[in-house]
Amino acid sequence: MATQSSTEITEGRAVLGIELGSTRIKAVLIGPDHRVLATGGHTWENQLVDKLWTYSLEDVRAGLREAYGQVAATVRDEHGVELTRLAGLGVSAMMHGYLALDADDELLVPFRTWRNTNTGEAVEQLSAALDFNVPHRWSIAHLHQAVLDREEHLPRLATATTLAGYVHHALSGEHVLGVGDASGVFPIDSSTGTYDADRLATAQRVLAGAGFAGQLTDVLPRVLPAGEVAGHLTEAGARLLDPSGALQAGAPLCPPEGDAGTGMVATGSVAPRTGNVSAGTSIFAMVVLEGPLSQVHRELDLVTTPAGDPVAMVHCNNGASELNAWAGLFKQFAAAAGSPLDDAGVFRTLFEASLDGAADGGGMLAYNYLSGEPITDLEEGRPLFLRTPGSPFDLSTFMRTQIYAAFATLRIGMDVLTAEGVRLDRMFAHGGVFGTKGVAQRHLAAAIDTPVSVGDVAAEGGAWGIAVLAAFTAARAASGEAGEAAEQRDLATYLDEAVFADAQLETLDPDAGDVAGFDAYLRRYVAALPVERAAVEHS
């Protein structure tokens, strides 16, 4: 007997979202009510090749096939039908970086990810010329650095795009970007919804002066806001996802987005005075602004929501990777002691222990810098733990210190926003680090002195967020075809009314003792940064 879910799938009313994260490629199939019907995934890792962080595009293709294949298998096993049609499709990925393609869409140099910080000279020149903080990881910084380094691929450069843009093109044949992802490529003018024209002209002069013969307006993908149809799934795209031939071409695609934008969508944080924190390999906060900031700040990226509204982004290269490494070490110890624990058990045990740790870290300090960290002016990183000779050395405080380390650099950037007078009504948090109920949530609330909400709305993270954006595009397209102008809601209204109206969220207010403790910890953290720099210089 057909169920509601199986009928939705066979009638082609389900929507697929795919997100290429730093450690996992994930696919999520949702129904018309945005409920998750099936998920799939593929684990992958970046590689350090010739001193640059990269992923192979063969891994991209293999990961897409595996993630989609698991979704299709779940549909078959749990819903009893074949997945053959989609109402919509969306692709999201790690923002920034540099994917250089020639006129035949062939890769010219290995994909350079957001994690690379080799763009210092380009950042300095562009930030000064544009009167805008251009971060190390932005696509325009990578392009200009390639020009300054006289890289031989530049005469053949036809398109410079992001990972989401690359995969979107592979599925649709269209070189476009969602405005949120594009805001990590080049500064956006929120009044026009595309690249800032004056700054584009200035950047063209700067690059030409350094020897670049191309035109930025030709090289950069065109920009679209949330809700626009950004192409349709081609036959080649369908075969990329599903070599079996079952998946039909033709589904509309939403504009490809970055993980920052899908994090905003997945937490319903697209309106002014709302924000979200996404914690993974990197950690970043997105704060939707009420108006412009008074000046340029090196610690802040100015990006946009998927609808094009201005956002201040505090991006930290180093997030939960060092926490994961310590958890792996304790997992090995538990197994060696004859009491093995799975990953969930290890994290639960360690995180819950942190609640009993000294609020100020008890004289312990940790730096989670596996890579460079621009906010603290470090081009390279060394994971580091240290303590004063007289400090206690207990598991609870040690783990609190490690979790604090994941939030410390984020807090440094958030302090800049506070000084600008930016205020938040709520901060949503998502990512695996928040999986142990009430722990990282409590420590983050202390770090930023703001109520922090978590909930099952972001359980599937950015893959669900891009699926929601694809559903938004499909709904607008359908209502436009039917002449139902009332259905042409903006993104914030769509999220409030159609997605999060019945969402169950848990909010923790900051504890005064924890806030004071984190402040004390951060003062020691900042004061001891020369120790981290010395570790980089001498090891």
UniProtKB/TrEMBL annotation:
Q: Organism source for this protein?
A: Quadrisphaera setariae
InterPro entries registered for this protein in UniProt? ATPase_NBD, FGGY_C, FGGY_Carb_Kinase, FGGY_N
UniProt keywords, alphabetically: Carbohydrate metabolism, Kinase, Transferase, Xylose metabolism
Locate the transmembrane regions by residue number: none
**Protein name stated in the entry:** ATPase
In what residue span(s) does the Carbohydrate kinase FGGY C-terminal domain sit? 276-473
Q: Which family does it belong to?
A: Belongs to the FGGY kinase family.
- Its domain of life reads Bacteria
Domain spans labelled Carbohydrate kinase FGGY N-terminal = 15-239
Question: A GO molecular-function term, please?
Answer: kinase activity
A GO BP entry is: D-xylose metabolic process
